[in-house]
């Protein structure tokens, strides 16, 4: 899909336009936001190496697309992105993220009260870890965006993550949230908090979310994590893992990730649990990944044809060549609704390289 002088912005715009067509959504606003969040790397030719080792995707592409589907209703499209300045570095990247928030808040009239309540916790002078702030844009059927900001719990050093997250919950009026999470999903030594996220919108459904990477976990660990949410069937999480990674009892590669959402009124317990399975580490290649995801979609009464349309929107590469295109698959569970999200890599920089760090 690209030639020697294609830029990162051009390739990802084309992919996004194709995806908009697949989900039947107007592309003007998504394309504009993609261009804006890419910042300084938009016009960088793909022939040059990535300007910054973004951890959004394995190959350092600073954006990732995802498509969320439920049994009923139209699929919705999302973009996860790290915004990058011309002179990237931990301090400059955080500055660029804050500048982007300011521009978006003004244009879309975003409520920033919750972000203001916690932002100092996630903005140290000397940011640590792999990123400071990331963004996602979540589009409804008309192409109207909603915004989410992800903060890095390790930004003051991994040893301070528990204090930072506990304090952030407290400032948001969720005084007991951290305790519950600790009991269910931070009980193993290899459980680590990876993202603390806020929806930036006015609705009472606006979420506070915490993600935990459960390194080297077995299925029992994620079922236990799911049991923190009242009214959902934790065993669906095990079934999901067994279907996508048959025969895998323990996940020693990229970790299973658990997340919890808290919305207004959830003082004690989260109302939603999601499991994210990094499929690319548990399949020989993407043709196998495709077959398994098709089975999952069929089980959930979702037309599996959607998956091929999503894949074709991104790439025409041979799926059997390697894994990496289908990066994660997630199952979102609340008492009244279940949904699946497919995370697809742009592979702008060639796709999944060997894993280098934990
Ligand atoms: N690339 C990172 C990872 O795989 C971050 C990330 C991107 C991620 N999309 C994700 C993590 C979806 C969990 C779920 O960890």
UniProtKB/TrEMBL annotation:
Keywords noted in UniProt: Transferase
Record GO terms (molecular function): transferase activity, transferring alkyl or aryl (other than methyl) groups
GO BP terms, alphabetized: alkaloid metabolic process
Residue stretches in coiled coil: none
Cited Pfam families: Trp_DMAT (PF11991)
Tagged with keyword Metal-binding: no
Identification of the protein by name: DMATS type aromatic prenyltransferase
Source organism: Saccharopolyspora dendranthemae
UniProt lineage: Bacteria, Bacillati, Actinomycetota, Actinomycetes, Pseudonocardiales
């Amino acid at each position: 899909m690209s030639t020697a002088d294609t830029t990162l912005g051009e390739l990802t715009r084309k992919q996004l336009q194709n995806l908009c067509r697949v989900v039947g959504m107007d592309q003007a606003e998504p394309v504009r936001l993609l261009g804006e969040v890419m910042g300084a790397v938009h016009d960088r030719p793909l022939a040059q190496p990535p300007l910054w080792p973004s951890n959004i995707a394995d190959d350092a592409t600073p954006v990732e697309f995802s498509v969320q589907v439920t049994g009923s209703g139209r699929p919705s499209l999302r973009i996860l992105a790290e915004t990058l300045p011309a002179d990237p570095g931990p301090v400059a990247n955080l500055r660029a993220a804050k500048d982007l928030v300011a521009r978006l808040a003004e244009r879309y009239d975003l409520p920033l009260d919750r972000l203001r309540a916690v932002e100092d916790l996630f903005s140290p002078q000397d940011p640590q870890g792999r990123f400071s702030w990331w963004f996602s844009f979540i589009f409804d059927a008309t192409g109207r965006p909603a915004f989410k900001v992800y903060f890095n719990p390790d930004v003051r050093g991994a040893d301070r993550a528990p204090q930072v997250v506990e304090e952030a919950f407290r400032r948001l009026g969720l005084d007991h949230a951290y305790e519950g999470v600790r009991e269910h999903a931070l009980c193993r030594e290899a459980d680590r908090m990876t993202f603390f996220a806020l929806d930036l919108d006015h609705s009472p459904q606006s979420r506070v979310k915490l993600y935990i990477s459960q390194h080297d976990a077995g299925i029992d660990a994620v079922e236990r994590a799911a049991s923190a949410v009242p009214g959902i069937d934790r065993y669906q999480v095990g079934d999901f893992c067994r279907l996508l990674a048959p025969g895998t009892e323990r996940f020693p590669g990229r970790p299973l990730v658990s997340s919890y959402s808290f919305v207004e009124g959830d003082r004690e317990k989260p109302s939603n649990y999601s499991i994210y399975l990094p499929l690319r580490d548990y399949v020989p290649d993407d043709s196998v990944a495709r077959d398994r995801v098709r089975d999952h979609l069929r089980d959930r009464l979702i037309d599996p044809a959607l998956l091929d349309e999503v894949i074709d929107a991104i790439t025409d590469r041979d799926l059997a060549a390697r894994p990496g295109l289908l990066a994660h698959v997630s199952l979102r569970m609340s008492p009244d609704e279940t949904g699946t999200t497919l995370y697809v890599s742009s592979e702008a920089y060639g796709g999944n390289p060997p894993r280098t760090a934990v």
